[in-house]
Structure formats: C-alpha cells, structure tokens
Amino acid sequence: MPAEETQKNSKISEEAPTNAASDALNEDVMKDSAKTVDNEVKGESIDLHTGKALTAQEAYRITAARQVQLLMIAGAVGSGKTTLIASIFHCFQRGPFANYLFAGSDTLLGFDQRCYLARTASGRSTADTDRTIPGTEHLLLHVRIRASNLSSPAKDVLISDLSGEHFEAAKDSVSECRCLSLIQRADHFILLVDGEKLVEPERRQGAKNEAVMVLRSCLDAGQLGQRSLVDVLFSKWDLVDTSENKPENLAFVENVEVSIKEQFEPHVGRLRFFKVAARRAKGDFPIGYGLAEPFVSWVSDTSDKTLPTNIKLHEPSGISEFDRYFKRTLPLLFTKEG
Amino acid sequence: MTTPQSRQFLIGLPAAGKTTFLAALWHVVVSGEVDGALKLERLEGDKKYLNKIRDLWSNVKPLDRTNPGSEMVVSMLLKHPSENTVTEVIFPDLSGESFTSQWTHRKMKRNHADLVREAVGGLLLIHPETVIPEALIPETEGIIESIRSEMQSGRHTGMKESQTVAVDTNQDLVEMGWKPEKAPTQIQLVDILQFVATLNAKRPIRLGAVVSAWDCITDTISPKAWVEKYLPLLSQYLTTNSEVFYAEFYGVSAQGGKLEDADALRKKSRPSDRIRVIMNDLSESHDITIPVRWIMKPLA
Fold this sequence. Notes:
The structure holds 2 protein chains of 2 kinds. By secondary structure, chain A is an alpha/beta fold.
C-alpha cells in the first residue's frame, strides 16, 4: 500500500478536505486560499490536517488512540466560553501555564481564529472574541500538554466550544439537554456565570437563574450525576472587582454560590467555585486570572476520583483474568462473596 | 561504493535567511577558509545556483528571494574534517511562502513531502526581525490610545513596525478580518514542525534551530534562551517533544551584518570572517558548518 494511503485516516490525507464547507468560522478566507493553491499545484500536493476545531468524529482519531480529558465549557451567550478557551492558549503562548508546558495541538488554526480579535493585529482598539456560530459541528479544540518537570508523558485535552444557544435551549428543555451528549462523556463540566451581568441589578437575577436552570436540566436529563465534576466560574471577575457597588455585588455572588451549593452539591461528585478574568477589560488583571488552579485539576482529575465507595460488587468464584485485573484496578468495588 | 546521503530539510518562513545560510555554507565548504569545517570533496552535478548565490553573498549583495517557482534542491559532497568520511548532503531551498502556505492552505507539495519523509534531520531558521509577536490589546491599550490621539492631532511620527503592528494609517484602527498568515510566528512554526513529525517516522529527528541575523541581537543571551524568551510556545513544544525532535540551538549571522553596511563588510579579505556562529555557551566561531555537522551526526 502506498505510504500516502496508509495515512488517509491520520492527520495527513490525500483526499480533498470535505469538512471545509461546514466550518462556519472564516470559511471564505480558507476557500479563497485553497482555490489559489489548487491552481498552483494541481494534483501535486498532499492535504495536511485542517488545523480547525474538530468535529466529534474527527476527534475520535485522538480519543481512540490516547486517554483524553474532555472539558465541557457551558454558559449563556456572551458569558465568556470562547474567551476562556482563547485565554488558556494565550497563556501557553507566553510560557508554561499552571506548571504545564505546551506539547502540541491539532487545532492551532482554530485557536488562532479564536485569539485574533484580542490581538493588536486585528486593528481593534478593544479586545473581543468571535461569537461561536450555533450549529457548527467543529466544536472541539485540542491541546497536548506535559508537566513542566517532564515527569510524565504528555496529556491530550479536548475543550468544547459550543455556542451559548445550546445551553439556553438546554435550560428550557430537558430533551434539548439530552441532545448535548458530550456532557455525559465530559471529565469536567465547567459552567460560566457572566460577571458582567452580575454587576447589573437588572440582569443579575437572570444570570443566576440561567446557571441554576442549566444545572437543573443537566441533572434531570441524566447528563450530570454523582460522578460529575462541576466547576462554576464567575467570569469577567475584573468587572465585579472594579464595580462601583462592589460590596453589594460580592454579596450577590456569595448568594449565588450558596444557592447553587444547597441545590446541587449533594447530587454531583464535586462542586467548586472560581473567580476568573480570562481577559481583562478593566483593572489590572493578568491574562488568564484565576484559571491556573482549576486548570490543574481539569487536566488531571477524572470522575473516577469521586467514585462512590458504597457500591459493592460480589466477587464471584472462578473469576477470569480480566476480572482479576478489574479487581486490582478498582478494589473498592469488590467485597468477598458470602 | 555509493556515497552515503544525508537528506535534510530546511524550514523557514519568508525572509528567514535560508538562502543566505546556504550561500555562506557553500562558500565555507568550497573555500576551505575555516579550519575544522566540512569541506567540499569534489564537484558533482550542476552547481550554477549555489555558485550564483555564493557570488552575491561574498560580494555582500542582496540575494534574490526564493520564489515558489524557483525552488531548488541543492546537494554538496562534503568531507568531514576529523572523521574523513564523505557524505552527500542534500537541502531543499524552498521559498518561505511554501512554508506559509502549509500553514494557511494546509497543503504540502508532494515533492517536498517526500523530502521531509526521507530526511534524517534539518534546520529551522528564524529571523528575529520578522517574528510576528502575539501582542494583545489589553496589554497595549496605552500604546493604541496614544497612537489614536496622536493621529487625531496629526502628531503621529511613526513607530517601529513591531509596535504599530496593525495600526495602519490607511485603515485607522478599523476592524480587519482574520487571516492565518497574520498568526504569530511561533504558532506557524509549531504547526509546520507538527507536519514534519507526522510525515517523518524517524525518532528522534535531529533539528538545528538557527536564529539567523544574530547581528541584530544586542542582548547577551544564548540562542536557546532567545527562543525561550521570544518564541515560548515553540520552545515548550521542542522541550516536551524531545523524543520527536532532538534540538540544538544556534545563533548565526551568515552575512555578518546589515546590507547597508556592505562597504565595511567587504573590507574583510576572507568573506568567511564575516560569519558568526554562536553556541549556547556563547562561544563563537566562523564555522557555519557546525549546525550542519550536528544534524548530520548519526544518532547513538
């Protein structure tokens, strides 16, 4: 078999890209560019991996080969989901982040698109992030990272970049929520509560309600449960911290935290709260403020850590090698027969 | 007996100094001016291109930019100074646009892909003055605001290109659409190296990371530390992928200075005396074959 053919399903393919049309992000730029090259090197070139955000099907190449941490970033439209993702990449562009080093990515073009409007190269005077277009299937960003001391092999992380409309639909309908099947597979469910809304008296109750209803719907749809690791992030914290009515706003944030804890802590594996400013608009907050601490656990903690210990399986007699391996790996699940 | 071949890749974005490096390399191996350097064993094949760029380089004249249509594969039959072995070293001299195109259009010319697959190692050239940094708006608000007010008052007198970035006087801070070629240099280079890693199954692949035009760098800094400081994403990628790329860092001033200073540069009777190769311990040499000898070295 020719070498090229063996790579059809790997990162480099001989086939023309078929998904280009479905990627809504700056599709025209890519189309025009591709046309030029096709004319130049007709039949004389090979296709390289697209570099764009991956579809779930494209991500299978990674998930099938290696253990992957999947981070589900949830939140209302404009709550800062894409900015959070871009910010993680901005941090790695400056050096090690949260004691991890960058080790590669299959979606560098996708990251670059998401970072662009925050750069001076965009010609803007204020930073922004391109809205994630609802309906795009290219929703997973990939990054490989490795501990700074190189003590362990690199880890693969997939980060979802679903549009806020999905979560707005999910909070209103359990059946819509069930469609977001990635949530169940996710190692971490990261819910953003929009800090910009929290400082506005006429919008903050809505921001709280949105967060509560997304969690309620995910629980009722069975997408979240006892094994789920849930982090609630108060985004755009720079706006809260520099707000005119800071004490009042902080009290409201406290109120949101208590309310979410009371309602959901008993029903999920772990529930934590963080204050983050992925990219400051005000004050003196560094890029990725507050992200390092949760990031460490996003890339290392798996839901197995919160596996309930009160579920016991009886150890049958004459168990197979596979069962013995299973028992060694998860001893807490077994009790002696009889 | 067939002469062993050592196929190498030569990566660099536009104006990274690839052709200047090759011109200086050809001069050194042909002239024998540098003790301990690789030397030309004998001439074989057509060396018109190498002789042409060497003449321009040695006379301190600007070298023609390599265009996508004028790309060459050059070969040199070289003798190792101490080991007495003869190897045919093969480098493709591709245009920087070919590499930009890999990043922007996600395609690689089939003949280049074949060269990458067969290579035992290669050089990555980075020109410090053409690096596109990642300048974030929140961190340059002060600069942008002052430009805006200076523009409005007609006092704007121009800034360094790296500072102005996209603040184009014709566009006056208008929104400009994303184009992949505007991506920071380090992102583009990491992806190009990822293409190499996917195509080339050898592990590790020897990589000489060459910071060219070292005469522009005024800091006392090692080449490796320079890459860590100005291209941290690339530096992290090479650190974490040492089983894929066995990298060594060099600073090289192949021309010895700027073309504007051509008269002064021409005063050196031996053109190779203009060459500066800086190692990580900050020691210097005129031997531009040092990075080439390193990537040719068989892996233990």
